[in-house]
Design goal:
- It is a single chain.
- The protein is α/β, with parallel strands linked by helices and 176 residues long.
- The chain has one domain: Alpha-Beta Complex (Protein-Tyrosine Phosphatase, Chain A).
- The protein contains seven helices and four strands; from the N terminus they run H-H-E-H-E-E-H-E-H-H-H.
- A four-stranded parallel β-sheet has the order 1-4-2-3.
- The relative contact order is 0.17.
Length: 176
Amino acid sequence: MIDCKICGKDHCTYMDQYAGSGLLRYKPRVELDETLIHHGILILSEEDAVNLMEPPTCQQVSCLRISDPGYRLPELHGGFYNHVGEFKFFDIERDSYSRKAMTSEIAGRLVEFFKQIGDDFLVIHCFAGISRSSAVGMAFARFKQDDELFETIRHSCWFDPNLHVYNLLSETIPSL
């Protein structure tokens, strides 16, 4: 049961939408999503984020989209986002011959996006919803000074945060 922090109602549409996606077969993933929602964040795959038709809360919702450079992101179906930020970098930890890792310039833009959205609920997605988005989610938790959220993401078996992304963002977040 997911109770909204704003109105106290059960916004179960998120869980209902994915009944056929296979995620609901995994009770630990449902419990993780409920915990994340309680902290004002949801980390999803691109497919799940694109198909999110209603927000899991009645507060303002922003979306942070991560993809590879040159990849055209599909349109979001939910028209409820207050802010949408798109950030493009490869899911690698160091530059390779043909691919560039995330830069400090992109990290700075991400932190500015954190500031811009204020107290909005945040949906973060990358292609699989495992590495880049969870690293950004951990940095967002640090930015919000939410240690419980940070530890939830860090210790979840559903995520494998890209440490290069997290470290660059950590260096960029102003000392609070």
